[in-house]
C-alpha cells in the first residue's frame, strides 16, 4: 500500500508527563476531532529493557539516560491511530520536538515547555510505524 493509503497506521505514546498533568483527554480529543481512528489503546508502564527496544536509535545519544528515566518513570498511554496519511498528519499535530520552539496550535506548542517532556511520541516514518506497532501491539503488527 502507498503512504497515502487510508489504512496507514501510526504508534502514539502519550508520555508520563501528559498523564501526570492530566492532559490525556485533551490530547486524545484532538486526535478524535481531527477524524483519526483509535485502533488500539492501553495504559502501560515501560521497563528499561522495553525502553531500549522502543528507542533503539537513541540509546547511544547523550540525552538518552534522562529520557529513559523519564519514559519509565510512570504510566503512559499507547495508541495505534489510523487515517489518511496519519503518520505525517500526527507529526504535524505534535509540532517540533522542543515544546519551547513548537508552533502555537500544535500539541507541544500549546502545552509543553520542554525538549524532553514533550507530552507525545509518534512514529516518524512508515518503517518506524511498522516496527513500533509490532513492538507495542504484536497482535496488530
Ligand atoms: P520522541 O518523539 O519520543 O523521540 C525521542 C525523544 O527524545 C523525543 O521525543 C524527546 O522526548 C527526547 N529528546 C530528543 N532530543 C532531545 C534533546 N536534545 N534533549 C532531551 N531530550 C530529547
UniProtKB/TrEMBL annotation:
Reaction equation(s) it catalyzes: a ribonucleoside 5'-diphosphate + ATP = a ribonucleoside 5'-triphosphate + ADP; a 2'-deoxyribonucleoside 5'-diphosphate + ATP = a 2'-deoxyribonucleoside 5'-triphosphate + ADP
Residues bound to ATP: 15, 63, 91, 97, 108, 118
Top EC class for this record: transferase
Keywords for the protein's UniProt record, in alphabetical order: ATP-binding, Cytoplasm, Kinase, Magnesium, Metal-binding, Nucleotide metabolism, Nucleotide-binding, Phosphoprotein, Transferase
SMART domains cross-referenced by the UniProt entry: NDK
Subcellular location: Cytoplasm
Residues annotated as catalytic: 121 (pros-phosphohistidine intermediate)
Sequence ranges assigned to domain Nucleoside diphosphate kinase-like in this UniProt record: 7-141
Cofactor(s), by name: Mg(2+)
GO molecular function, one term: nucleoside diphosphate kinase activity
EC number: 2.7.4.6
Keyword Phosphoprotein appears in the UniProt entry: yes
Keyword hit for Transferase: yes
A Pfam family annotated for this UniProt entry: NDK
Family the entry assigns: Belongs to the NDK family.
Role played: Major role in the synthesis of nucleoside triphosphates other than ATP. The ATP gamma phosphate is transferred to the NDP beta phosphate via a ping-pong mechanism, using a phosphorylated active-site intermediate.
Oligomer status and interactors: Homotetramer.
NCBIfam families named in the record: PRK00668.1
Protein name from the UniProt record: Nucleoside diphosphate kinase
Gene this chain is encoded by: ndk
Amino acid at each position: 500500500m502507498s503512504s497515502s493509503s487510508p489504512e496507514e497506521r501510526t504508534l502514539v505514546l502519550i508520555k508520563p508527563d501528559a498523564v501526570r498533568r492530566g492532559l490525556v483527554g485533551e490530547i486524545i480529543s484532538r486526535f478524535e476531532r481531527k477524524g483519526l481512528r483509535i485502533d488500539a489503546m492501553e495504559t502501560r508502564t515501560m521497563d528499561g529493557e522495553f525502553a531500549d527496544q522502543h528507542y533503539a536509535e537513541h540509546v547511544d545519544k547523550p540525552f538518552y539516560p534522562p529520557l529513559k528515566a523519564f519514559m519509565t518513570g510512570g504510566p503512559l498511554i499507547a495508541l495505534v491511530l489510523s487515517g489518511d496519511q496519519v503518520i505525517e498528519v500526527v507529526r504535524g499535530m505534535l509540532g517540533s520536538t522542543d515544546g519551547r520552539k513548537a508552533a502555537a496550535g500544535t500539541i507541544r506548542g500549546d502545552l509543553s515547555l520542554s525538549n524532553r517532556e514533550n507530552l507525545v511520541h509518534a512514529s516518524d516514518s512508515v518503517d518506524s510505524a511498522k516496527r513500533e506497532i509490532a513492538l507495542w501491539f504484536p497482535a496488530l503488527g
